[in-house]
Amino acid sequence: MINDPFVIIKHPLVTEKGSRLQEENNTYPFKVDPRANKIEIAGAVETIYNVKVKAVRTSWLPGKPRRAKQKYVMTPQWKKAYVTLHEGHVIELM
């Protein structure tokens, strides 16, 4: 169990898809700690941004092969969370 909300939420993901989700569904993507579960993620977002979380969806993104000089290495896998907020709540990222 992770107690610090700033360890659970690494940073928000600012992408075109994330912007579209914010406008249409009031959903925000975050890069999160791989050990965190949905309940911990919801609590961390509520604590950091003072909003009410409606739902959390998580997904794992696999590492990809990259070239480093003369050999291939794998980038690390990471965890993404899509956090949906209740009506009337907004996170100001920019």
Polypeptide structure, described:
The strands form two sheets. Strands 1-2-6-3 form a four-stranded antiparallel sheet. Strands 4-5 form a two-stranded antiparallel ribbon. Helices cover 28% and strands 37% of the residues. It is of the alpha+beta class. The model has no long low-confidence stretch (mean pLDDT 94). The longest helix is centred in the middle third of the chain and has 12 residues, at 38-49. It contains three helices and six strands, in the order αβαβαββββ.
Name a few traits of the molecule.
alpha+beta, 4-stranded antiparallel beta sheet, 94 residues, 6 strands, globular
How far apart are the first and last residues' alpha carbons, in Å? 30 Å
Computed structural class: alpha+beta
Rg, nearest Å: 15 Å
Mean pLDDT: 94
Helix-strand string: HEHEHEEEE
Specify the biggest β-sheet.
4 strands, antiparallel
Globally, the shape reads globular
How many beta-strand segments? 6
- Report the total helices: 3
The portion of residues forming beta strands comes to 35-45%
